Amino acid sequence: MNQESGGDAAVRPGPGAGIPSSLVTDGFDGILQKLKLLEFGLYGLHQYGRTTPLDVEDLAPFYRLAEEIQADVLTLQARLAPPSEAHPAA
User: Fold this and answer.
1) pTM of the predicted model, to two decimals?
2) Cβ-based neighbours of 5, under 8 Å, separated by 6 or more
3) Which residues have a Cβ under 8 Å from the Cβ of 86 and sit 6 or more positions away?
4) What is the rounded CA–CA span in Å between residue 19 and residue 47?
């Protein structure tokens, strides 16, 4: 019997079920895209700062993007945590 990941199983695995690789890949892809945006944005800001003084407000979008990346990483970490760590025994 061929089992393919799809439907609700790929979105919300049941207790004790393995995390589908597509779910992990999607999570990492989003984080990697945001990291690339942050990298290129900071590089551009660095180049811009060589010729023009930077204002503190120029950094605000980068702080927001870093906060989004942090939230994404924590969400992915929670998804990948084994059930015993996600729900500690009393």
Assistant:
1) 0.61
2) 20, 21, 22
3) 78
4) 42
